[in-house]
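input
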Amino acid sequence: MGPRLADVSARARLAGPDEGIGPDELALATRNHGLPLEALRYDVTPPGLHYVLTHYDIPYVPEDAPWGLTLGGRVRRPLRLTMADLRTYPAVTTRVTLECAGNGRALLNPRPVSQPWLVEAVGTADWTGVPLRLLLADAGVGGEAVDVVFTGADHGVERGVEQDYQRALPLDVAAGTEPEVLVAYEMNGAPLPPQHGRPLRLVVPGWYGMAHVKWLCDITVTDAPFTGFQHTVAYRLRHGPEDEGEPVTRIAPRALVVPPGFPDFMSRARVVRSGPVPLEGRAWSGRAPIVSVEVSTDDGGTWQEAHLDADNRHRWAWRRWRCTWTATPGEHVLGVRATDAEGHTQPLDQPWNRGGFANNLVQKVPVLCLDRDG
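output
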């Protein structure tokens, strides 16, 4: 990590250290994009529709460029691995839903200063790579190890601090099997696209997107808890300026509905005809499997159980849900909420935090129903 640049990014310093992405980085919003909610119909999201968030510049890595991954620190046998070396390990493919930790922050009031996501910062892909536990086993992790630190090749200035993007995982998570963390080199059966981390990225099933370090170039095992910027300053659930906060980790349950009917661009509502209206969407949780999805058509006044698809082979990916709404003429507000096997469910009123993180507020969709015979 480079020196502190006190003369850079005055606006960011004024905003305080609580948000993962500050005002000086909002210019990056044009390269960040979310998932069109119509794409929830895909089991696996095409890479161009999958949400993207970059903290700094996307490193340019030509397809034929050599790339090395170092694994060192508190290990007995430091490793220097080429892409060819990584492909000698058993390949594992896991379907994983990634969600930005700030997804939904634009729905909070007051709105935290950062990337203004509504609910579109999500996507699901089949990720192929090497289980991290195998690399750690080959390196021989020392008995004093505590954290595993991951460094990406993206580099920039945040809150006046020049830095590489770095995150850490506790050793038991990094070396565990549930979830099994991947050092991934393919997305949906093809090499990683540049915006998704070419040539290597971390995939941590069940964790918010900040943990999935892209353009991965170094792994370091440490004997003390990691205190880097993205770990102890950013991505913490803080409720006040003096609050040290809790770290953002696993994904809270969420369900989304594919907007029904067609849009009215003046009112921003969806328009449907009276009678049976099929509704569908996806639900996921990084804490426990989804066990139920409920739908409301009267702004949370009453709820009806939706049908969850029986296919639950992909523990770390979203599940499809469906139901039929008998729509009556007038104005309605659709809502959908998910509950997981540990009893976590979505709130109607979201507790506020300074970074707008882990906001799983129930989605609301205004709908105008027209008389079919009118």
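quick obs: The domain at 10-247 is CATH 3.90.420.10 (Sulfite Oxidase; Chain A, domain 2).
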